[in-house]
Each structure stands twice: as structure tokens, then as C-alpha cells.
Amino acid sequence: MEDVGARRSLETELARMAYSDPLTGLANRRALLQSLEDGVAAEEHQTALLLLDLDGFKNVNDTRGHDFGDELLVEVSRRIKELLRPTDVGARLGGDEFAILLRASWSEAVATAKALVARLGEPYEFHDESTVFVTGSVGIATAAEGLGDPELLLRNADLALRAAKQAGKNRYATYDAEFDRRVRRKNELSQELRGAIGRDELRLVYQPVFDVTDRTIVGAEALLRWNHPRLGQVSPGEFIPAATESGLTQDLAVWTVNRAAEQLAAWQNGGIKAWISVNVSVKELHTHLFATEVNTALIAAGVPAKRLVLEVTEHDFSHQMNTLIAQLGALRGAGVRIALDDFGSGYSSLGQLERLPVDIIKIDRDLIAKDDGGVGPLAAVTVALGRILGMEVIAEGVETDLQLNAMIAAQAPLVQGYLLAKPMDPDDLTRWLTEEPKALASEAHPVPRPRDTPNDVPGSEKS
Ligand code: C2E
Ligand code: CA
Ligand code: CA
């Protein structure tokens, strides 16, 4: 008899262990999923799922040790339990991730999330009398969007949690179908982009840069275009961020530099001396690998390094300045020129600008142009600044005669923009480069104008 009793209690104990988190005594992932399924089976429409993640928990764990981390997690679970009503299920899903299944209306779920964020943000006192400040982020999804599928409910709550983190942490966010769509799109682009080079879906178009003093094309910016068989034309404004998030920019940059070098070789054979600039994100410059790739590409194509310009963006300069300066210095040492892209749209101070090994600054369109076709108030000053610093200056995004004339008056010799030429296929540009000097001389306009619209990706540039 006693045996049976002992076995029963052992069984109960084992069952409890299988469904609970040993550290906090909350339900575990398996138990939560079970409760979600039960809720679905019972067609409980008033179901909301809160997912909670501590902000910067790893920090506490790393600096104070795991025992300390555990103590913090236990206290967090205590605060969660305070908020639970008898019908709710609190769970720890692993690490510092928790969940609460609420049998509650939408507004009650939001109120609970609010209370939770507030409670989690209160200071934590520890046994050694130290105090730690930690906050939490919460994502909310309701059965309305995820009914019938516990996994979907979890996923939606997880997306909401991501949105809360992205919005700055220490807050809650509710599931948002639009955010969901953007995340799906980004994932899809990253996925598809992985094979794009191999499937030959990428190409470069070139937008010429003009010297307005002698009316010649001095160089061209290489711009990526992606034509996916199902997704159609995807603009770089959309796929470059996706590539950056999934670590694909290095492959893209190497591919682009090699195509540009080949184009330079073709021009060189035809006696054309224009340079090509390629956009690179600063990520590439954190190792010396990229500099090696660049040199290899130039040697393979047999073109002098001075024909290649690398455009880097000011926004990226906030981190690891010293590594960056070293890598840019190495590339420059090899003869490649560096352009600071989107100048005036970022945060770098003038002091920083002096330290950067840069040859050219490209003044951002936002400084040059106003939406009504007018000239930005700081355009001329910025051009002068570039000159004082001893750099070449390219004025970007010139769309109207007014803007062009202002740049000429400001003595900005180099201009790029839709007024003069849109990005175009390399063959069209080559034709333009070979015909250009004669064709231009007769034009009344101070700089060359395209006779017909160069073909470019529809939709990616406004016409
Ligand atoms: P960005 O480097 O500032 O490139 C200039 C963008 O402005 C290009 O758009 C160009 O078509 C557009 N543009 C040129 N003239 C005008 C004008 O007069 N008015 C207006 N409104 N726009 C003008 P695109 O080709 O869509 O490229 C967008 C951005 O995508 C680029 O901005 C660059 O940041 C990125 N990107 C493009 N190709 C590459 C690439 O090969 N690698 C990397 N890392 N980024 C790239
Ligand atoms: Ca650029
Ligand atoms: Ca730019």
C-alpha cells in the first residue's frame, strides 16, 4: 500500500517537473503550449499572450555572474506572479524570456502589460544589499489574430516584442500586421538575395558626374539594380538594408568592385579615362580583407587604382574610428580614392572630418535641393567648406536649372543629378562618353543634356 502511495506522489512530482521551470516554479514552454492548445480547443476568444524579455539581462549575467542572474530571474518571476489571476498562466520559456497567457479582454491585456513594464523597471535589491536596475519589454498578441494556432499566437507575440525592443525597450507593443509585413518582406529579400549573384540577377547602372567648367563627364557612380524573377525590380533603398542585416554586403561589395574594375578596363581599352565610384558600407572596412579584394580586382582588370573611388557614408562613422581610418588609409595608400557620401545628412563633426582620410565629399541632395526645386540655404556654404578642407566636392541630386546655376555660382565644379543624367546602362554611358565632347559643344546649356531619357529601372528613380 505504502508503495503505491509513494509511486503516485513520485509520478505527480515527475509530471510537475516536466511542466514547470525548476528555477522559478513558473510553467515551462511545454506547459504554456499545452495551455494555449487547450484554450484553442475550448475556442476561448478572450485569450491574449504577453511575451516578456528583460533588457540587457546578458549584461547582468556577464558582469555579476550566473548566481546573481538566477537571483534576478527568480525576483522577476515573483513580480510576474503578483500580477497573475487564477485563470492566467505565467511561464518561463528559457533564459530571460517569460510569457503570460491571459484569459482577458484586449484592454485588460494592455493594462497588464503596462503594469508589468512598470513593475519590472523598479530597482532589484539583492542578498548582498546591492541594487540593480533592469527593465523589460513586452509584446502582446491576441487570439483574434492567432486563433486556432498556438504557434502563430506565439510568433505574433514575438514580433510585437521585437517591435517593442526596436522602439527603444522598456515598453510594450502590440502585434501590428504592417510591422509583420515589413519583417516578412525583409526576410524574404535576405533569403532571395543570398542566391542573386549566382543566378545573375544583379547588374550595375552608372550615373555620370559632370565637370561643369569644361562640360565633360569625369566619372560615374555605380548603382546596384536587382531584378528578381518573381519579386520584380527591388530598389537598393530596400535591399541594401536587408543585405546589411543578413551580413551579405561583403559579397555584394566584392561583386560590385569586380564589375566596376571590368568596366574600367573596357573604358581604358577604348581610351576613356573616367573614374567609377562604388558604394561600400563601413562594415566592409572593419577587416583588411576588403582592401585585398579591391587590389586583386584592380590587378586582374589591369586598371590603375586611381580610377576607382569608394564611397562611404558619414552615418557609419560613429563606431571604431581608428580601425576605419587605418583601413581607408591602406586603400588610399594603394591609390584608391575615398569619397564621403551623403555629406551633411549625418552626425560627424567637423573635427572628425579633418581626421578622415577622404579625397572627395559628396554633398547630400537634402542640402542642395529643396522640394520645390529651389536651392538649400546651406548648399553654397557646404561647397565652400569642402574646398577649404582641400577636398574635391560633388554636388548630388541636382534636378533643376536653378540648383545647377547655384552650384556653378558656388564654384562646385562637379555635379551629379537627374537634370544632367539619370543612372543608365553601361553601354549607353560608354556611347555618351565617346560621343560627348563634340555633341556638347553646340549645346546652349552650360552642361550637357541628354537628348533622350537614358534607360533606367522604372520606378526606382522619379522621372
Ligand atoms: P546614394 O549612394 O546616395 O546614391 C544616390 C541615389 O540618388 C541613387 O539612387 C540615385 O539614383 C539617386 N539620385 C541621383 N540623382 C538624383 C536626383 O537628381 N534626384 C533624386 N531624387 N535622386 C537622385 P539609388 O540608385 O536608388 O540608390 C539608393 C541608395 O542605395 C544609394 O544612395 C546607396 O546608398 C544605396 N546603393 C546603391 N547601390 C549600392 C551598392 O552597390 N552598394 C551599396 N552598399 N549601396 C548601394
Ligand atoms: Ca553614393
Ligand atoms: Ca549620396
Describe this structure in words.
Helix content is 46%, strand content 20%. Strand 8 and strand 9 form a beta hairpin. Helix 3 packs antiparallel against helix 4, helix 8 crosses helix 9 and helix 10 packs parallel to helix 11. The chain is elongated. Ligand C2E binds next to strand 9, helix 9, helix 10 and strand 13. One calcium ion binds next to loops. It holds the Pfam family EAL. This is EAL domain-containing protein.
Task: Output the keywords.
binds ligand C2E, 2 domains, disordered C terminus, alpha/beta, Alpha-Beta Plaits, 16 strands, binds calcium ion, 8-stranded mixed β-barrel, 17 helices, 463 residues, TIM Barrel, 5-stranded mixed β-sheet
Largest sheet: 8 strands, mixed, barrel
Percent range for helical residues? 40-55%
CATH homologous superfamily caption of the largest domain = EAL domain
Oligomer: single chain
Bound chemical compounds: ligand C2E, calcium ion
Helix run count = 17
Q: Report the count of strand segments.
A: 16
Low-pLDDT segments: 438-463
Pfam family, one: GGDEF
Organism: Glycomyces terrestris
InterPro entries: Biofilm_reg_signaling (IPR052155), EAL_dom (IPR001633), EAL_sf (IPR035919), GGDEF_dom (IPR000160), Nucleotide_cyclase (IPR029787), Rev_trsase/Diguanyl_cyclase (IPR043128)
Protein name: EAL domain-containing protein
Describe the secondary-structure layout.
Layout: H1 2-18, H2 29-41, E1 47-55, H3 57-64, H4 66-83, E2 89-94, E3 97-103, H5 106-120, E4 124-125, E5 131-132, E6 135-142, H6 143-146, H7 150-166, E7 172-174, H8 177-193, E8 202-211, E9 216-228, E10 232-234, H9 236-245, H10 249-269, E11 275-279, H11 289-301, E12 308-313, H12 321-333, E13 337-343, H13 350-355, E14 360-363, H14 365-368, H15 379-388, E15 392-395, H16 401-409, E16 414-415, H17 426-441
Parallel strand pairs: 6-7, 9-11, 11-12, 12-13, 13-14, 14-15, 15-16
Antiparallel strand pairs: 1-3, 1-6, 2-3, 4-5, 8-9, 8-16, 9-10
Helix pairs in contact: 3-4, 4-5, 8-9, 10-11
The structure holds ligand C2E and calcium ion (CA) (2 copies).
One calcium ion is lined by residues 341-342, 362, 396.
